[in-house]
Amino acid sequence: MPGGNRRQKRKNWRRRFSSSGYRYTFPRKAILEVLTRSVKHLSAEDVYHKVHRDFPRIGLTTVYRTLELLTDMKIIHKFDFGDGRSRYEFADEGESDHHHHLICTECKRVIDYSDFMEEELMFIKHAEKGLSKKFHFKINDHMIQFLGVCDRCRK
Ligand SMILES: [Zn+2]
Ligand SMILES: [Zn+2]
Ligand SMILES: [Zn+2]
């Protein structure tokens, strides 16, 4: 991510906190910084270890609570591998960020991809249309992840 973009993001966070009536506290800021600097898909424990290195006074409970808050605020989103441990990454900010996941249940590697196959896009479009009609439900977004075993683990 280029520096300018990152600075822009920081400014937006401050604004989002104040417009949602939350304070942009030091731990919240520190946790967002960690998420920005890291590779994606961190668990709460991963975030805690990274934050703790620089700021030993920020505890695991604060990390959990902050991640929940950031999820509610839709700054980050939470997803599961099916191992009961949530992972977090920044929420999509527009079409260019949108991606799907291939998750290896052996090594927990997550492959992000956005070079969707045409069949995949067609399928999603049809499924969303059909579901909206069937349930009178307005679909705004989706998260797609496939669980399996990656090439490295299959060797
Ligand atoms: Zn998609
Ligand atoms: Zn693997
Ligand atoms: Zn991802």
Helical percentage: 40-55%
Counting H and I runs of at least 4 residues, what is the number of helices?
A: 6
Beta strands, count: 6
Portion of residues in beta strands equals 15-25%
Q: Give me the Rg, rounded.
A: 17 Å
Global shape: globular
Adjacency order of strands in the biggest sheet? 1-3-2
What is the H-and-E element order?
HHEHHEEEEHEH
Q: What is the typical, i.e. mean, pLDDT?
A: 88
Low-confidence stretches: none
Structural class: alpha+beta
N-to-C span: 33 Å
Biggest beta sheet attributes: 3 strands, antiparallel
Ions, cofactors and other bound molecules: zinc ion
List the keywords.
alpha+beta, three-stranded antiparallel β-sheet, three-stranded mixed β-sheet, 6 strands, binds zinc ion
Short description:
The chain has 155 residues and is α+β, with helices and mostly antiparallel strands. It has helices spanning 3-19, 26-37, 44-54, 60-72, 118-135, 151-154; strands at residues 42-43, 76-80, 86-90, 100-104, 110-113, 145-148.
